[in-house]
Recover the amino acids of this structure.
């Protein structure tokens, strides 16, 4: 969850496991408070702490005067982590790894990275929550402060936007195809 949400420039500077470790330390310190009043499922509580640590790391490294991330120039542009896009891409491709299939997988991963990075933050986040974090619709609704029907509709709209980015020439005709 953390690796997918780290700014690519920030991911070159800090590792997702460092952010996860800091989040787990804070969760350990705050565990007794949570146990006294568990207002949400434990998984969502941990996720919120991790999101706060991602935001803190972003602020710390973006607002640094001498070594701001904005002053650094990457040698190679970074995308989303390979593992997360691989999980989504494997749902759409054959599991037999012939040379042609391996090339197709690589191409699909690149297209998926590009498409997800083009999406608005809200749409990207709901897709990541549902498909990468594998949160249920109920958990997504609770995490975003929405009703379940609203979360479902928002996810459906985000999926349609992703489809439109990935298949721009097909438009709405993709829904009519079997």
């Amino acid at each position: 969850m953390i690796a997918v949400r780290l700014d690519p420039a920030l991911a070159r500077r800090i590792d997702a496991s460092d952010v996860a470790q800091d989040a787990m330390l804070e969760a350990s310190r705050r565990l007794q408070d949570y146990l006294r009043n568990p207002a949400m499922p434990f998984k969502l509580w941990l996720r919120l702490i991790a999101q706060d640590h991602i935001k803190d790391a972003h602020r710390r490294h973006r607002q640094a005067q001498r070594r701001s991330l904005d002053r650094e120039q990457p040698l190679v542009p970074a995308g989303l982590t390979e593992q997360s896009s691989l999980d989504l891409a494997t749902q759409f491709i054959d599991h037999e790894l012939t040379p042609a299939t391996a090339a197709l997988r690589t191409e699909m991963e690149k297209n998926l990275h590009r498409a997800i990075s083009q999406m608005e933050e809200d749409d990207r986040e709901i897709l990541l929550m549902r498909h990468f974090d594998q949160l249920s619709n109920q958990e997504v609704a609770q995490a975003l402060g929405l009703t379940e029907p609203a979360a479902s509709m928002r996810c459906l709209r985000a999926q349609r936007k992703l489809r439109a980015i990935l298949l721009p020439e097909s438009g709405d005709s993709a829904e009519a195809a079997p």
Notes: The chain has ten helices and no strands.
